[in-house]
């Protein structure tokens, strides 16, 4: 195993494994097995000294794998499938990697594979991942080159640096590229949206809200602590119970599932709140969710340029799915009255119910309708019903069958926001009050470190809106009637039990702190688009630049970056001396020269001593002691005093220096 | 050099110490005869200790013969001088077999080459055939005459001289033959003070006549073995190789030094270090012997003005000591 440390093949395999990690995590299990098998074989071959497989077998394996791959993904056109193909072929390449040339190809393509992962996610974790791949590949390439060089020279290779030493070396090489990378990052001409922002829902659609709500839709989101978006408020934060982030508005109920309506989506909002008087001003940084909604507090008063329209039911919609981090400025007015009057078509839509469903509820609501004189009282009565009867808030409700509302109201009485909102809206419609379900997020976690509100997928929520004369569409959250803490403190605190193993408070806090770092990354790196680039250039005193100007600036900055690195490289190439004693000796000679002694690098230690003798700026005793022991070390091969000499060389100063 | 403190030496090396003392005494003696030429004398001794042969390129009358004779005398060795002329035949050097009627057999009469120290004066005056007889003997350490191989004495040291100005009627030694000489030196005119001293003191030949042998041939063989043991470090070999590489890459020279020249350089440097009293080779030793080693082996590229000596000196100033 010891020899593996400096075996280029071990590093090539290691680098490939690291580069494959995210890919393996999102692959079906059988593809993972197929990918790992050739890697395992190659590793064993290296240790046991096996010979390469015959060509026909390699070809057969490759073709069979291709068939499995196409069978799994259907075609090879999608992002996932294409990267899967790359991963598999790269793993199979190891079967024939027995020469430096092939090893070099695998190491380089591992870097390419690593780069493809940025098509899927660009989080901060990917930086560590990319760095690990880069360093690993650099070490592998360096080891290959070193082994080749010494194979040609027939000299014994010098002892390696050890794993940590090699990693440090790789990291130094990678660090050399940092100035160039920075120059490219800052000045490369940016498009409005990145080239890879192509939505793909085939295999790994992002979790998030959808435009329909069936039992259990939101349930899966409760398990997901990944950020949905972050909101940075100007001025005071709204109260937690006012943080209703509006998403899809659902009008159509088929007895089981709620859906958005064509009209609600496609008609424009008739009026907007006055942005001047709206109290909430904030910026939303929305994580990509590949759907069309932008989330905002009730009611959005502006339509940000990122959005395409504000719909009739006040959903902010984009033309294309949100495939990358999107930041937009928002202004919201909670006091705005939505639809003081309700058009008949809309009233019809908001009252429509399928026949033959939930007869017991229908019967009860008709009775209650007769007993109450106005809509507001009826709403209150239903909420009181939820509050006083033994309804429970739980994320693991019993399953419901055909008459979902009946079963929920009279039998199971256990559920979460989706059940309550849906049941409430249906009850309202049965009582003749126009109602709809709104999904979105409720609450959020205030991050003190960064002064922003983080809204996670687990904050997903559903509530109802009823249309009442005078107040228009009015938000009613029946969940709050059952479990007020859901709204006051958040979904997690409304539950008694942990959602899953490791669901601890302190771990959540750690994650929240990490989220702050992640937000910075999003803010400064991912969201660095054409707009921010020109902002930065403006800050640097450079006005508007066209693409051509940017390219010129890029070239210039790369020259500057190169000017930082190249002298270092040049010195490295020229001063190949690795022995610290010799390096210090050269420095010593330079000192003597500076003091005026006519020494050159072409002089041996005796000549140096002779040339420096009697020079006024130099201590003759020290000079002769150094030259003497340098000669003993280098030419008499007496190594005992090496450390003493090294110290003496480092400490040496001419008289004018002290 | 305090590195070679006698206190550090083991008893086995006491004999070696005595030997070295006698060697230094021998050098002093020669220096007392050949005034003001101590670097050349040291090189000559180095050449001897490195089991090489010496080529002296100089004008007549600057002390070539005196040097050779003095060396032979302090070494307690047989000394033969051969004046090379255009009619000199190989047999004149190697010897002949004469038929002895009384014994009814041939008897071999060894030529002047069967001596410990041979001075081949004006070697470029003889025909190539005769030259090569000498040079082969130098290379092999033995001669083959009429089918019989005769070993030459050990130590066997040839000092050949050439007159660089006298070109009429000479057969210049080809490069391949010059390579047989380990070192080439030139004595040059003496300094005025030294020359004054020379003029005032008694005749050199009478000084020589009084001179006693200081070393024995056994001593010389042992010293030669001592020299071969002088340590050459990795760093030193790197420097040596850097010099060789520079001669091969430099545009100043027609051709670079051969690997054989590289080996010769190391042998010379070892001997030089030994004569400096060190048991390891320093870069300075290489530098001291390099001009003598390179001078007759290299030619300046066509069209270059400078002399080989200048170019070699420039090379030494240029190549970094590792």
Textual characterization of the structure:
Chain A has 658 residues and is an alpha+beta fold. In chain A, helix 4 (79-93) runs antiparallel to helix 5, helix 5 runs antiparallel to helix 6 and helix 22 (605-612) runs antiparallel to helix 23. The longest helix of chain A has 29 residues, at 125-153. The two termini of chain A are 51 Å apart. Chain B has 13 helices and nine strands. Chain B has helices at residues 14-33, 38-49, 64-74, 90-94, 128-140, 175-178, 192-200, 204-210, 217-228, 234-249, 259-275, 283-294, 308-318; strands spanning 54-57, 79-83, 95-100, 105-110, 117-121, 142-145, 148-151, 157-162, 183-185. In chain B, helix 2 packs across helix 11 (259-275), helix 10 (234-249) crosses helix 11 (259-275) and helix 11 crosses helix 12 (283-294). The longest helix of chain B is centred in the N-terminal third of the chain and has 20 residues, at 14-33. The A-B interface holds A 577, 582, 600-607, 631-632, 634-637 and B 3, 231, 233-236, 278-284, 287, 316-322.
Strand content of chain A: 5-15%
Q: What is the CATH H-level superfamily of the domain at 52-201 in chain B?
A: P-loop containing nucleotide triphosphate hydrolases
Q: Could you tell me the number of beta strands of chain A?
A: 18
Strand order, sheet with most strands of chain A: 11-6-2-16-15
| CATH architecture group name of the domain at 52-201 in chain B | 3-Layer(aba) Sandwich
Secondary-structure-based class of chain B equals: alpha/beta
Q: Could you say which overall geometry of chain A the principal axes of the C-alpha atoms support?
A: elongated
Provide the domain count of chain A.
3
* Largest β sheet strand count, sense and barrel closure of chain A: 5 strands, antiparallel
Q: Give the tally of β-strands of chain B.
A: 9
Order of helices and strands of chain B: HHEHEHEEEHEEEHEHHHHHHH
CATH topology of the domain at 52-201 in chain B: Rossmann fold
**Coarse morphology of chain B:** globular
Structural class of chain A: alpha+beta
* Mean pLDDT figure of chain A: 83
Strands side by side in the biggest sheet of chain B: 2-5-8-1-9
**Mean pLDDT reading of chain B:** 85
What's the helix count of chain A?
24
Number of helices of chain B: 13
Low-confidence stretches of chain B: 1-9
């Amino acid at each position: 195993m010891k020899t593996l440390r400096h075996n280029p093949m071990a590093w090539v395999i290691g680098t490939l494994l690291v580069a494959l990690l995210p890919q393996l995590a999102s692959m079906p299990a059988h593809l993972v097995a197929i990918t790992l098998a050739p890697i395992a074989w190659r590793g064993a071959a290296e240790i046991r000294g096996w010979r390469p497989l015959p060509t026909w077998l390699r070809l057969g394996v490759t073709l069979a794998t291709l068939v499995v791959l196409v069978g799994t993904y259907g075609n090879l056109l999608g992002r996932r499938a294409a990267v899967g193909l790359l991963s598999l072929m790269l793993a199979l390449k190891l079967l024939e990697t027995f020469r430096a040339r092939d090893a070099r190809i695998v190491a380089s393509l591992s870097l390419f594979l690593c780069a493809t992962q940025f098509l899927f996610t660009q989080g901060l974790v990917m930086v560590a991942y990319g760095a690990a791949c880069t360093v690993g590949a650099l070490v592998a390439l360096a080891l290959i080159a070193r082994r080749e060089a010494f194979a040609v020279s027939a000299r014994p290779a010098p002892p390696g640096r050890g794993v940590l030493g090699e990693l440090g070396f790789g990291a130094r090489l990678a660090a050399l590229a940092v100035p160039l990378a920075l120059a490219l990052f800052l000045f490369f001409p940016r498009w409005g949206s990145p080239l890879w922002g192509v939505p793909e829902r085939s295999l790994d659609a992002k979790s998030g809200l959808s435009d329909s709500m069936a039992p259990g839709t939101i349930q899966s989101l409760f398990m997901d602590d990944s950020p949905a978006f972050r909101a940075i408020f100007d001025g005071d934060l709204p109260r937690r119970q006012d943080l209703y982030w509006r998403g899809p508005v659902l009008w159509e109920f088929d007895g089981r599932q709620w859906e958005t309506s064509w009209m609600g989506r496609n008609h424009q909002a008739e009026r907007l709140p006055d942005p001047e008087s709206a109290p909430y001003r904030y910026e939303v940084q929305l994580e990509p969710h590949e759907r069309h909604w932008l989330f905002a507090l009730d009611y959005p008063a502006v339509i940000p340029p990122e959005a395409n329209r504000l719909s009739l039911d006040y959903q902010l919609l984009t033309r294309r799915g949100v495939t990358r981090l999107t930041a937009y400025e928002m202004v919201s007015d909670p006091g705005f009255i939505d639809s003081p009057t309700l058009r008949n078509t809309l009233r019809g839509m908001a009252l429509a119910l399928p026949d033959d469903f939930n007869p017991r509820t229908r019967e009860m609501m008709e009775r209650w309708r007769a007993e109450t004189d106005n809509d507001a009282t009826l709403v209150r009565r239903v909420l009181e019903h939820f509050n006083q009867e033994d309804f429970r808030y739980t994320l693991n409700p019993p399953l419901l069958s055909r008459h979902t509302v009946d079963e929920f109201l009279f039998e199971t009485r256990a559920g979460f926001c989706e059940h309550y909102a849906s049941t409430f809206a249906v009850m309202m419609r049965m009582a003749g009050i126009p109602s709809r379900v709104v999904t979105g997020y409720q609450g959020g976690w205030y991050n003190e470190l960064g002064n922003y509100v983080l809204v996670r997928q687990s904050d997903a929520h559903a509530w109802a809106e009823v249309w009442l004369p005078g107040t228009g569409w009015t938000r009613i959250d029946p969940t709050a009637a059952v479990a007020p803490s859901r709204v006051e403190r958040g979904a997690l605190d409304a539950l008694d039990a942990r959602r899953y193993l490791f669901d601890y408070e302190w771990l959540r806090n750690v994650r929240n702190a990490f989220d702050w770092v992640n937000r910075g990354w999003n803010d400064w790196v991912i969201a660095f688009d054409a707009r921010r680039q020109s902002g930065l250039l403006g800050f640097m005193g450079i006005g508007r630049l066209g693409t051509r100007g940017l390219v010129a600036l890029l070239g210039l900055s790369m020259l500057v970056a190169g000017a930082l690195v190249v002298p270092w490289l040049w010195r490295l190439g020229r001063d190949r001396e690795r022995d610290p004693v010799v390096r210090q000796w050269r420095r010593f000679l330079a000192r003597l020269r500076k003091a005026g002694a006519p020494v050159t690098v072409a002089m041996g230690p005796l000549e140096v001593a002779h040339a420096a003798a009697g020079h006024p700026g130099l201590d003759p005793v020290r000079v002769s002691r150094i030259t003497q022991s340098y000669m003993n070390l280098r030419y008499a091969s007496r190594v005992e005093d090496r450390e003493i000499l090294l110290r003496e060389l480092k400490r040496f100063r001419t008289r004018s220096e002290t | 050099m305090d590195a070679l403190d006698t206190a550090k030496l083991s008893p086995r090396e006491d004999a070696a110490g005595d030997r070295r003392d006698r060697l230094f005494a021998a050098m002093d003696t020669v220096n007392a005869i050949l005034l003001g030429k101590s670097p050349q004398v040291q090189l000559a001794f180095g050449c001897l200790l490195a089991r090489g042969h010496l080529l002296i390129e100089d004008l007549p009358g600057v002390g070539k013969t005196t040097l050779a004779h003095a060396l032979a005398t302090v070494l307690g060795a047989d000394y033969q001088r051969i004046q090379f002329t255009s009619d000199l035949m190989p047999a004149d050097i190697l010897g002949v077999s004469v038929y002895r009627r009384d014994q009814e057999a041939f008897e071999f009469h060894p030529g002047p080459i069967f001596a410990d120290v041979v001075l081949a004066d004006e070697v470029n005056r003889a025909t190539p055939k005769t030259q090569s007889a000498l040079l082969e003997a130098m290379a092999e350490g033995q001669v083959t005459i009429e089918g019989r191989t005769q070993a030459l004495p050990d130590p066997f040291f040839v000092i050949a001289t050439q007159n660089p100005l006298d070109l009429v009627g000479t057969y210049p030694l080809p490069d391949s033959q010059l390579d047989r000489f380990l070192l080439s030196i030139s004595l040059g005119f003496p300094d005025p003070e030294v020359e004054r001293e020379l003029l005032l003191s008694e005749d050199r030949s009478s000084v020589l006549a009084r001179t006693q042998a200081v070393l024995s041939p056994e001593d010389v063989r042992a010293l030669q073995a001592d020299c071969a043991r002088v340590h050459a470090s990795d760093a030193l070999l790197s420097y040596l190789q850097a010099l060789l590489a520079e001669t091969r890459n430099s545009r100043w020279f027609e051709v670079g030094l051969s690997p054989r020249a590289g080996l010769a350089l190391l042998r010379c440097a070892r001997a030089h270090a030994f004569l400096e009293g060190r048991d390891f080779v320093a870069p300075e030793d290489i530098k001291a012997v390099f001009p003598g080693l390179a001078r007759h082996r290299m030619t300046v590229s066509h069209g270059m003005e400078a002399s080989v000596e200048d170019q070699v000196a420039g090379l030494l100033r240029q190549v970094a000591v590792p």
